[in-house]
Amino acid sequence: MKALVFEKSGLENLKLSDVNQPEIGTHDVLIRVKMTGVNPIDYFVVNFIPVKPIPHIPGAEIYGEVVKVGDHVKDIKIGDRVVVYNRVFDGKCDMCLEGMEMLCRNGGIISVITNGGFSEYFSVPEHNVVKVEDISEEIAASLPVAGLTAYHALNTVQVFNKTVVVFGASGNTGQFAVQLAKMMGGYVIAVTSKNWIKDFGADEVVSYNEVEEKVKKLTDGKMADIVINSVGSSVWDKSLSVLGNNGKLLFFGGITGSNVNLDLGMIYGKHASLVGTTGGNRKELVELARIAKRLRVKTWKVMKLEEGQEALKALFDKNRDGRIFLKIE
After folding, report:
1. Minimal CA–CA distance to 100: which of 176, 155, 42?
2. Distance of CA 19 to CAs 5, 57, 207, 307, 311, Å?
3. Does residue 149 belong to any structural domain of this protein?
4. Residue 76 CA from chain centroid, whole number
5. Residue 107 counted as domain residue
6. For 219, how many CA atoms within 13 A lie in the half-sphere containing its CB?
7. pLDDT tens digits, 58-86
8. Which of 85, 140, 122 is closest to 2 using CA atoms?
9. What is the count of structural domains for the chain?
10. Whole-angstrom distance, CA of residue 140 vs CA of residue 34
C-alpha cells in the first residue's frame, strides 16, 4: 500500500512509499482510509516528537471504511464507515476505569507510539472505532482530534448561560469550540479575523487587537466566565486579561509555543482556575458522532496523500482559512 513514511525526523524526510498492508488480529479491523485531518500534532510528530516504530507513518485523525474484520469482532461490519479513537489504552489502569482512556498509564497516542493513518489502509482494535452515518467526509475526519479536543475541554466546565471567549476561533479546534459552546448554551465571543465564524454560532466576532476592550464592553465589565486558548503562548497574556473573577481558562495545544510567563498574582487575585486538557475519552467521541449532523467545518484545502509535505507546511500559512485534509483514493 501507499503511505507517507519518514525514517528520520524532519519534514524533508517525509516521503510517499510502498509499505506492507497492516495485518489484523482477531479483535482488530482493517480500514481503507478515505480522509485524514491535518493537525499540528502531525507536524510535531514528523519534526520533533520521538516516535515508534521507525520507519514511521504519521497521521492522528482517521476516517474510513471497514474492509476486513477479525474473527472475534462482533459490533463492526465490513462496509461500516468509522472514525478512529486515536489513543492506545489497556482498559485496566485506574485512568481507564475512570473513563479517562486518553490518560491511560500504559498507553499513548496513535501516530506517536504506533503508526498513524497517512496511508491507504490502517488496522486498529475494534474498541478504537466509532461508527458514523450521514455526515460529510470532512466532518467525519474532524471528529477524532479537532472535534473531540474541543468537546472534552468544554465538558470540564459548566457552559450554560456563561460567557465563553474562544481564541483561535477559526482554527482546527477553535471552530468546533465555538459551535459546541453555543450548543451548550453559552454566549460565545470568537476571537479571530475571520467573519465566517459568525455562521458557526458565534454571538460576537472580535479581533485580537481589540479583544480586551470589546469583552469588557460586551460583559459590562465582568469579563469572561470561560476562556479557551487553543493557540498557545502567543495569546496567553490576552487569555488571562479577558478572564473574569472566578473564571476558568481552558487550554490545549501549542502551535505558537508552549512556554509562558505566569503572573501568579493575576491568577489568585481573580480566584481563577487554569485547566489543561488533552484529547477526550471514548464515550465523548461516541456522543460527538451522534450530534455530528449538527456540526459544520470550514475547509481550506483538500490535498492528495502525495502532497503530505505541502499539507503540513500549509498549517503555518498566514493565509490559511479553515482546515486542511488529505483525501486518500
Report:
1. 155
2. 9, 10, 46, 17, 21
3. no
4. 24
5. yes
6. 25
7. 999 999 999 999 999 999 999 999 999 99
8. 122
9. 2
10. 10
By residue range, what is the domain housing residue 112?
2-142+280-327
Q: CATH number, domain at 295? A: 3.90.180.10
d(CA 286, CA 145): 13
Cα atoms in the Cβ-side hemisphere of radius 13 Å centred on 316: 13
Q: Which of 138, 199, 206, 201 is nearest to 172 (CA)?
A: 138
| DSSP secondary structure, 234-301, as one string | GGHHHHHHTEEEEEEEEE---TT-S-----HHHHHHTT-EEEE--S--HHHHHHHHHTGGG----EEE
**DSSP assignment string, 74-115:** -S--TT-EEEE--EE--S-SHHHHTT-GGG-TT-EEBTTTB-
Span 262-289, mean pLDDT?
A: 96
Beta-bridge partners for 69: 29
Do residues 83 and 9 both lie within one domain?
yes
- The proportion of the chain whose per-residue pLDDT surpasses 90, expressed as a percent, equals 98
Classify the phi-psi angles of 111: left when phi > 0, otherwise alpha if psi is within -120 to 50, otherwise beta: left
Rounded-to-10 torsion of CA 150, 151, 152, 156: 100
The answer on 265 and 309 residing in a single domain is no
Distance of CA 300 to the CA centre of its chain: 16
CA distances from 56 to 46, 156, 258, 308 (A): 9, 34, 25, 14
Cell 520533533 locates to 48
Where do we find the cell 449538527?
294
What predicted TM-score, i.e. pTM, was given to this entire model? 0.97
Could you tell me which residues come within 8 angstroms of residue 56 by beta carbon, excluding any fewer than 6 positions away? 5, 6, 7, 45, 115
